[in-house]
Amino acid sequence: MIMIAKIRPLAATLALSAALAGCGWFGAKEAPPLPGDRVAVLLFDSELKVDPEVAELAIRLPRPVENTDWSLAGGRSSHVMHHLALGEAPRIVWRQSAGSGSSSSSVLTAAPIIAAGKVFTMDAQGQVMAFMADTGRRLWDVETTPKGEDSAVVGGGIGYANETIYAGTGYAEVVALSAQDGKERWRSNVPAPVRAAPTVAEGRVFVVTLDNQIIALNAETGERIWGYAGISEVAGLLGGASPAVDRDMVMAPFSSGEIFALRMENGRVLWSDNLTAVRRVDAVSSLADVRGRPVIDRDMVFALSHSGRMVGVDRRSGARVWERDIGGVEMPWVAGDYVFVITNGSELVALTRSQGRIHWITRLPRFEDEEDREGPINWAGPVLAGDRLIVAGSDSKALSVSPYTGEILGEISLPDGVMVA
Q1: Dihedral sign, CA of 323, 198, 378, 38?
Q2: Alpha carbon separation from 92 to 272, 411, 413, 415 (Å, rounded)
Q3: What is d(CA 262, CA 213) in angstroms, rounded to the nearest whole number?
Q4: Strand duo 310-314 + 397-401: pairing
Q5: C-alpha closest to that of 193 among 224, 241, 153, 245
Q6: What phi-psi label fits residue 147: left (phi over 0), alpha (psi between -120 and 50 degrees) or beta?
């Protein structure tokens, strides 16, 4: 995994601030609390509980495996990487500028990828760069912004396959570039801006657009093969989630809270589900966006929405095997018989893969100043590597957590806050 060091708060944080702005007056004397039991008003305040029957069981994970490439968002098209190898003491080997980060006029949403001994990045203004993975030497850079257009838009993302970089842009385009020298191979229009990295599999490029459509393009020519349109949603979080692809199935995540299982060949719907939480009592929880990438692992699909619904679904039938009141914006990490996920409440949770039972919960720091509740921290991850879960925060720190117990093992300082991982 590589991480971009440039942070801006998530849209959820801004929405929460707006939702609570009318709850009182600054400087007013605090009134005594009303009598009675307290019930969580925001879904994010609802407490998760460990299942005592599984908490006593020992967690067993697959052995770490060396991985040289991270060619797509989520590692590979299915978004399953299980357990990666990592040294005992990771350190910064090199550091390079990768273009423009987030600003008042543009937002960085693209994570770096690694393939064929190179690191590829896409900045907040759509510039794609290539670096040598061992030295950091810049090889080339290309502007994907169409001629005559302003470069200040929300960025998309990139993916790699067969010596080609595929870039989804905020200009409603997908651009194919040579991984060797950055020369443009083709450019195709899609119905709306692309907010997440393309997923490339079986000679096809799959992108999800801002208006909740998924488009399949021919990877060689850019020609449209098929498309499917979900329900359009007026409001959503910044950025988006890449579709998951495994064998003959494509999982499309939409900002409406819907997920669709589609046949890769023709886009026919196999089944669908809606992850909108039943209790939506505030502006924040009403954002049903599936912002974390869905995961296809063996016989199951895992997905969660921002509004507070996480599910494990039977891959073949689409029937829910289990569901939990968990909301988040990060991809669940599946390894062996367990699923690890970060919640909107800054909790790192370990669940059993087959039943969704909670084995342990670790509360991550929520604020840089916990006493005054100032400086909210957004967490990216987790990634399971070297027998530890790695999470990185907007406070320029990365934490190492035991996947077996949830104990925080240590932390390291980063050059800057982390936005995408």
Answers
A1: negative
A2: 43, 14, 11, 10
A3: 12
A4: unpaired
A5: 153
A6: beta
Query: How much is the pTM?
Result: 0.87
Residue 240: the pLDDT is: 85
For every residue of 104-155, DSSP letters joined together read SS-B--PPPEEETTEEEEE-TTSEEEEEETTT--EEEEEE-SPTT--S-SB-
Torsion (CA) 410, 413, 418, 421 in degrees, nearest 10:
-50
Residue at token pair 């026919």: 268
Average pLDDT, the chain: 86
Residues 70-106: tens digit of each pLDDT? 999 999 999 999 999 998 888 888 999 988 776 666 6
Beta strand pairing call for 204-208 and 199-201: antiparallel
110 closest CA partner among 57, 165, 163: 165
d(CA 13, CA 35): 30
Task: Give me 68's structure tokens.
Answer: 């040289």
| Spatial distance between the Cα atoms of 211 and 198, rounded to a whole number of angstroms | 16
Q: Please state, in angstroms and rounded to a whole number, the distance separating the CA atoms of residues 173 and 170.
A: 7
d(CA 365, CA 222) in angstroms, rounded, equals: 45
* Interacting residues of 42 by C-beta distance below 8 A, sequence separation 6+: 16, 281, 282, 284, 285
DSSP-assigned letter for residue 243? P
d(C-alpha 313, C-alpha 42), whole Å:
26
Instruction: Count the residues in the chain.
Output: 421
Residue type, 33: P
Distance CA 38, CA 344 (A): 20
CA–CA–CA angle 338, 293, 407 (5° rounding): 40
